[in-house]
Amino acid sequence: MKKKILASLSVLALGGAIASAPAMAQNVKVAYLVAITGPIAGMAPTMVQSMKFAAEQVNAQGGIGNGGKLDPQVYDSGCNPQLATDAATKAVNVNGVIGIVGPSCSGPVIAVANSVSVPAGVLLITSSGTSPKISTLDDKDLVFRTVPSDDYQGRALARTIRARGIDKVAITYLNNDYGLGLAEAFTDEFKKQGGTVTASRAHEDKKASYRSDLAELAKGGADTLVVFAYGNSSGLTILRQAIENGFFKNFVGADGMRDEGMVKTLGPDNLKTLLVSAPAGATGTGFEKFSKDFKAAGGDPNGTFAATSYDAAFLMALAIEKAGGDKAKLPQALREVATAPGEPILPGEWAKAKKLIAEGKDIDYKGAAGDQEFDAHGDVPGDYVLYKVGGSGFAEIERMK
Amino acid sequence: MMEFLNFYVVPGIVTGSVYALGAIGITLIFGILRFGHFAHGDLATSGAYLALGATALLGLTPWAALPVAMVLTALLAYGIHRLFYRHLESRPKILTVIASLGIGMMLRSIVQVVWGVDPLAYGSGIARAQAFGPLMLRPREIATLALTLALVAALLAFLRYSKWGKAMRAMSDNPDLARLCGVDNDRVTRLTWFIVGALAAASGFCLGINTELTTMMGWSAMLSMFAAAVLGGVGRVEGAVVGGLVIGLAEELSVLLVPGPYKSATAFVILLAILLLRPQGIFKGKVL
């Protein structure tokens, strides 16, 4: 008899626990939208791994809210606006995610924001879309990024080049969001600094000859050519043909041109007059902490977009915690947890952050890829370094302002 | 004036030669085997990379590696025919066309697996031009033009005067009639694939030595090659050569009139105009 009562009591208790579990421990779904297929598929594994790593840390250190877990769902964005929009639609409308980390590549970010996430009021944090066009989206403060806009790079490069005494340049850029964004930012800033842009022409990728394009560009009389393209594609061909035919004396490029294969192919001696800018490698205590933890978990902290992807995923979790899982409060919460003032939170310090948020204290996330202080556009500033060709690779000349 | 010749006409002719070598292969397949071969660009890519392989493995200079690559690519083209296209011969031609798209992707992927996706070159460093009077030419450009001329002349002579060349032309005119007259269609097909493969390798090699080797090089150039083949008249070798040169020149000269990104569109526009206005092409080829 006693046993029976005990048994029925425990069944009741169990039933009660099961019934009340969803109310107490609410799992929160977020989408990790990464270009697992497509042109940047090589970078995707590290990006997914670092995002998942952030989620694991969150769940290991107390999860979300009162016993809930972060439930990350990985989708393929294919670096393609169409695929990314389809995946985002499924994530938001079918699976009910409250935030999107990603998508990869600039074009998909713009497409997903315009047609899916902003209309649905879903927060989006991309870790790899760098086009300046993302800043000016009509996004109702729902689009953020943990990777600096190319606008910063274009402007920093223009100021640095101008400060080095170059006052007349011709620009050729790849006909896509990357090339156009850089060219516009560079041109604007270069003119503000009193420089002259004699010609600015887009070019098509993968052509056998750019000599006629170069001849047109050279007509303005500039002896410096600025190339916003990729050094493993049209940038290489353009540089080769410009040097071989003596169209220009000096060359300037952005991070796409910082390609060691290009130096090997053309020979370092021929590229003495080439200057390229590239984002400075992450440093600081935030990166060191992430680097140590991520390495211990079997990841490569220096992988392309590894640190920015981690930050995007971790910030998303912080914002959800701060907003108490309320979708509408996420953007405001994200700004509060990411920006100063507040108690500094380093990558992986989830338990500490959770405690402070519960106590109602303000926190300030100091991320793996940088401070992650968002401006009005939801952008973060970047640090860039100017390189020249040295040895068989690139050597740092100066930090750019 | 000299600027016009050196920076617009010379590159146009060099690029045009590359297109011409590719277009000859396309036009031969179109004429004799009667289908559009969409793996042709990637066959050219394979040839270019096989030449690179020969320089690395056998220690040959790039130009000495070219014949090796031509032979290997000829065998590769024939192998593809034996393994894939031959089984589709009696089916509607559209099946072979679509199959060739798949073959192209396979070839490209194999190249990517073996050599990687980063661009490579036959040699490092750069070659400045030498002056020939007012003309500025690089040795590799002269060699490209000479090679194109030699291959075209040899091919035309072969088609005109040799027994097998005549058989190829007969099969191009009417395969059934040719068979009735004792032409061995299988052997003509085999011969066609050997020639096509060798020419594709030459085309890819010339593209590679004048720029770089990338795994997408052939695929990107193929549209222009198809435009050249149609422009010259399908099935006409001399037409493919003229067509290639016209397309190459038109692409380079187009930047004088339209913005640079429309360079590739020039070939499209010419292709459309030809199909609308003169579908038989300049040299009266087959109407598709």
UniProtKB/TrEMBL annotation, chain A:
<keyword id="KW-0732">Signal</keyword>
<keyword id="KW-1133">Transmembrane helix</keyword>
<feature type="signal peptide">
    <location>
        <begin position="1"/>
        <end position="25"/>
    </location>
</feature>
<keyword id="KW-0812">Transmembrane</keyword>
<dbReference type="GO" id="GO:0016020">
    <property type="term" value="C:membrane"/>
</dbReference>
<feature type="domain" description="Receptor ligand binding region">
    <location>
        <begin position="49"/>
        <end position="391"/>
    </location>
</feature>
<dbReference type="InterPro" id="IPR051010">
    <property type="entry name" value="BCAA_transport"/>
</dbReference>
<dbReference type="InterPro" id="IPR028082">
    <property type="entry name" value="Peripla_BP_I"/>
</dbReference>
<protein>
    <submittedName>
        <fullName>ABC-type branched-chain amino acid transport system, periplasmic component</fullName>
    </submittedName>
</protein>
<dbReference type="InterPro" id="IPR001828">
    <property type="entry name" value="ANF_lig-bd_rcpt"/>
</dbReference>
<keyword id="KW-0472">Membrane</keyword>
<dbReference type="Pfam" id="PF01094">
    <property type="entry name" value="ANF_receptor"/>
</dbReference>
